[in-house]
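Two proteins were folded this term; both appear here.
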Amino acid sequence: MGQGPLRVMFIMLIAASTAACGTGAPNPPPSLTPSPTPSPTSLPAATSYDEFAASFCSAFEALFGAVGNPDTAAWSEPSLALDAAVAAHDGVAADRLAEQIIGELESGRRDVAIGGGWPPGAPVMDQLDRVFVAFEAWTTAKVALAKGGPGAIDPQVAFEGAGGVEAWHAMFEAGRAMSSQRPGEGHHCANVPIGI
């Protein structure tokens, strides 16, 4: 895990921010409120590096599918469509798209919870979960902007307020610390351009 994605993440967040429409907290519908903990899963927790790595890759596939690729700042189709709904002040479309995006993020959080069962990888997954929660806050802020509510805030502010930037930093730090406990050279994900 290198520094490239971190640098691009800041550019991505700045470039994608929508102008704030006011101050205060967003007022998303209850169904779009980010959950504080990973959703329960009946799947067994990871007990090995290989199982951890598989969950890590699945989680990043969900992240890329939901919001886009942080390494290239290429937004996903649902995220681009949500931006268009914000620009059009189409709250109905924004609700529908946010439900899809948050559903994918929650799927990723379940992968994160599974991967966190391997003790050396748990700190990485803890921080990755915070990134997912921050992107959920980012998404709900966009819905509030689309609806033009008086409590709408800038999505980047929502992301940062949820600890997304700190979690992104901490995830890479935890990955470096974990590298001495993984076997071999590590694992490169098959479907997303990232490794652990």
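Next, the second protein.
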Amino acid sequence: MRKVVVLDRVRDGYTPPYCVHGQATCFACGEWCWLGSETYGPVAARTIDPVCMDCIKLAYPKGISPLGHIRDHRTADGPHE
């Protein structure tokens, strides 16, 4: 089974509420997505494939739910290490 992390697409005028640590391309459509503090590591290590919110809605049948949640550090929570 393929492990994926669902990410926000990079869009003009949109800044995500979490600290941005990089970008990756969606494996399904090739669009750029934001990587946060906790999503950067597994995507960079290639242990999880990035997929954008738009593609996850189209690619997977309804009723499929995520196995877990990765919480990136929120910008509003202040600086982090």
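Strands lie at 4-7, 22-25, 32-35, 49-52. The longest strand covers residues 4-7. These notes refer to the second protein only.
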